[in-house]
Write a sequence for this structure.
């Protein structure tokens, strides 16, 4: 039989709880499974893609952006696309963004820029561990204005 | 035989199985609280630009991806992570423990569902270090330890009271009993 005050037991349990909290934080924070250098770590896939496209198109820093936003082993069906190179900003108009899970499809019209003609494309990004793990580009052609109604 | 007796603020603790059970439950309660607090804090930390314990995981398999991303996008995660923070703090500081344990139970159940049924981690179903399943196990064990607080909720026959019952609300702040069942 041991004797203790209720207050000291309470303080002890709180102390142990805070110790557990710190231990969980430290253990989880330093877990090597997280790549803290990934620009999109913990962010929503659609936000990661939006950040990359802002850098690559609006700011014209695709070359720099792709180094961090694309995983080193990322697959890209358009590896030579202008949005993976630095240069003048590339005007583009996003028609629609469709996100489901880690997949983000961006339907956009890229204006003529850097000596290349404009094009309508569907970029389908797959996100993994805060980076773009795959980008599939599908060329398309938007219907001219006024011809979009159903037949 | 009683394992503890109150003498003013001092209690006598017998070194027996009952005390061991209480110690184990206390440690499980504190660990569950610590885990929930870290989990909830990490989500809000990223929202406010603070360093999280870990980045919000979005699952491994597509069904898990969809559920977690959608929960964040529709704002349900704001609610879930707030529950985790409040519940975690209650468990750590030992206040409103039965209510907090009950509050966290649905969260733990969804975590378990996500791990086992959406990410198919059946290989770690009995892994104590995998919190995807362990948080539910711990949550259930702690809830069972406080079952006497839930028994009135499980009454087969019941009748509605009146709003005057709210007058008894201050009694929830009364001093804890000494668990007369032991």
């Amino acid at each position: 039989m041991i004797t203790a005050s209720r207050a000291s037991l309470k303080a002890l349990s709180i102390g142990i709880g805070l110790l557990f909290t710190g231990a969980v934080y430290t253990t989880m924070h330093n877990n090597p499974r997280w790549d803290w250098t990934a620009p999109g770590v913990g962010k929503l896939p659609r936000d990661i893609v939006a950040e990359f496209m802002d850098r690559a198109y609006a700011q014209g820093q695709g070359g720099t952006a792709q180094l961090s936003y694309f995983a080193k082993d990322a697959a890209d069906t358009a590896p030579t696309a202008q949005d993976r190179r630095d240069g003048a900003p590339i005007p583009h108009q996003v028609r629609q963004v469709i996100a489901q899970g880690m997949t983000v499809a961006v339907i956009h019209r890229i204006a003529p820029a850097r000596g290349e003609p404009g094009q309508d494309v569907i970029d389908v990004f797959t996100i993994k561990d805060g980076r773009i793990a795959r980008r599939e580009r599908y060329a398309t052609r938007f219907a001219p204005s006024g011809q979009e109604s159903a037949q | 035989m009683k394992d503890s007796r109150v003498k003013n603020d001092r209690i006598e603790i017998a070194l027996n199985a009952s005390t061991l059970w209480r110690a184990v439950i206390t440690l499980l309660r504190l660990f569950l609280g610590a885990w929930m607090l870290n989990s909830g804090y990490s989500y809000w930390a990223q929202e406010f630009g603070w360093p999280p314990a870990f980045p919000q995981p979005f699952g491994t398999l597509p069904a898990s991806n969809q559920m977690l991303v959608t929960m964040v996008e529709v704002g349900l995660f704001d609610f879930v992570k707030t529950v985790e923070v409040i519940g975690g703090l209650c468990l750590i500081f030992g206040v409103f423990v039965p209510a907090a344990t009950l509050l966290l139970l649905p969260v733990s159940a969804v975590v378990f569902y996500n791990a086992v049924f959406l990410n198919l981690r059946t290989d770690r179903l009995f892994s104590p270090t995998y919190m995807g399943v362990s948080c539910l196990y711990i949550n259930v064990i702690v809830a069972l330890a406080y079952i006497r607080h839930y028994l009135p909720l499980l009454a087969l026959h019941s009748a509605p009271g009146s709003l005057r019952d709210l007058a008894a609300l201050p009694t929830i702040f009364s001093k804890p009993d000494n668990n007369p069942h032991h």
